[in-house]
Every structure is written in C-alpha cells, then in structure tokens.
Design brief:
By secondary structure, the chain is of the alpha+beta class. It has 18 helices and eleven strands.
Amino acid sequence: MTGDFQGETRDWSGLAARIKEWGLVLGFGAVGIARADPGEAASRLERWLALGRHGEMSYMARQFPLRADPAALVPGVRSIICARLPYWPGGLSCAQALAVLSDSRLAYVSRYALGRDYHKTMRQRLSRLAARIAEALSEEREGEAFHYRVFSDSAPVLEVEFARQAGIAWRGKHTLSLSREGSWHFLGEIHSNLPLPPDAPASAHCGSCTECIERCPTGAIVAPYQLDARLCISYLTIEHPGAIPEALRPLIGNRIYGCDDCQLHCPWNREKPGIRPSGDPDFAPRHGLDAVTLAALFSWGEARFLECFSGSSIRRIGFERWLRNIAVALGNAPPASETRAALAARRDDASPLVREHVAWALARQEED
C-alpha cells in the first residue's frame, strides 16, 4: 500500500465524521474508527491458542501473525474503519426463537444464517462506503492514493477488538460483540491508509450479569470472556469436520446450525420492548428455515441442499455435515415413528460419518 498522505493538512476529523454519516445512510447501525493495532488482544489470542481452545480450527494458529499485525495483512494500513450491521430478521422475535428451541420436532438454525450469506452483503456495503470515501478525496484534490481493503469475517482480523476500539461495541462475557442495541449484528472493516483520528473505545456494560455463561447448553463459556470452542455448539455444528463427541450430542438438542442461546438470554437483547429488525431483505428467512421440521430437512437430497443454500453461509459446511447435525437432533427428539422412519431411510447412507450419527440417533430412539 502506497500513498500515506504524509504532510497532509486535511481536516481528517471532518472526513471521519462524514464517513460515519455515509455509513448510516448505507444502513449500518454504527461506524467508528480504530487504530491499526490490536494491542493486548493479540496476546490474549495467543494464550487462547496455547490452551488449544480453537479445536481443529488450525487456521487460527497458522494465521496468528496476520491477526497480531494488521500491517502484515494490509501493508501501509493506518486506520481501520469499523462498521456494525444489524441482521435480526423482520417478523421474528426472541420468543419465537425460543419456541423453536423448545419444540424438538423443529430444526433450530442460528438467526444470522436464515437469509443470505452475510459476508457478501457486508462486503458490498463496505465497498460502497469505500467508494464514497474515494469520491470525496478525489473531489477535494486530484491524484491522491487512497488504498483500502474491506473485510467481514473473511480474513484474519480481530474484529471484536477493533469494534471495541472504534467505540461501536464492546466484548461481552460470551466473547461476542455487544452494544446497547444488542448483539444481533455483523461486523466489518475497511483497512485504509488514511490517518483518521481514532474514536474513544467502548466501555463494557455487562456488569455482574452472568446470564450468557449460565445459559450455555454445553458450558462452553468457561469463564467471563473465555470460550472453549471445542465445547461450543456453533463450532461443533459448523467448524468441526468429524464425529461430534457422544457426550456432547444430547446437549445439542435441535440446534442443527449454530447456537444463539447466549444471545437469546442476554438482557441487552431480551429486556427490550422489541428488537428492531434490520429491514434488510437479504436477512429475511428463506425456505421456511425459521420453523421447519427436522424430518423434512433430513429428506432433502444433496441437489436440493445445494440449490436451496446457494448464496447462504450454510452451504459451506457441505451436505455431509448437514445430515450429521440433523441426525443428532433427531436422536435428541422424543421417540416417534416419523423420526425413526426418517433416520432409517439413511441407515445405509454412503457417508460413514452420517451412518455413525444415524446409528446413534436410532439407538436413542429405541431406548424407550
């Protein structure tokens, strides 16, 4: 990255203020500026990796140098423009989500994955914001070299830390980003060579609350601000490639893709008169995923899986893991002929991984 704007007498504070205004117009919930230095967050990540709490996400350790040093990822970066984008789907509520969780016939899909793949939406929105910045710089003076890259959970970036530094969110005890508007949001960043003044970091407002820790189905939040991914249902159903440990399977319940329990019970989400939906059609539920039966999903073939989840973040786990997850959920359902029939139909599945989980689920169904 070249063109570091050294010697410029531009009103960088004024530009930062306009960037935030443009971001709001684009639909972001908040925009802030962070310095390009993760500070102590890098050492905390290093300790987490040393404890092996990243499980089989080997890329976390492999990419640590890039997370610890943004300049290694984007040479010449001087400031990081951070954005928060709400995603709670319109027409849904925490009560509705909890109702799905309590109905063992239904499949629970993490609310963020009900619609379009957020990576695409967020990067497109960030790219539009970056283009507006470039346009403004071009209008003010010709020939300046504004360089940037946009990210949204798509590169080794300590997103929650930069959001905290930028003042748009703090790190909750569940380790997710949290704001006074709740935690139903995505984060994204523009790494730039602009010497923008950083905002004041956000202060934490979790207080003495431990609701997220107490509500975690598997005890994955081992202490405030400490998550053991190896126990986390989101990790087990999305990132974990092999067999789900048997001891954890009953705790997964009907969660087939991700887990929202720590968010559903968080006071910053729960104690509001009503969650303000994002209003973005990209995040509206598709294919009835907000309340669909496990048996119906288990009957899908791979072609339908690929077709329905085109443009969805769910597609990346692949059909095999998808069936593995549903088999576990069916095994956790109360004994029923419909459930046993759905499982029996895949008793001889081509995948050894699926067969193993189907056999476990059938044994659970036959226990009573």
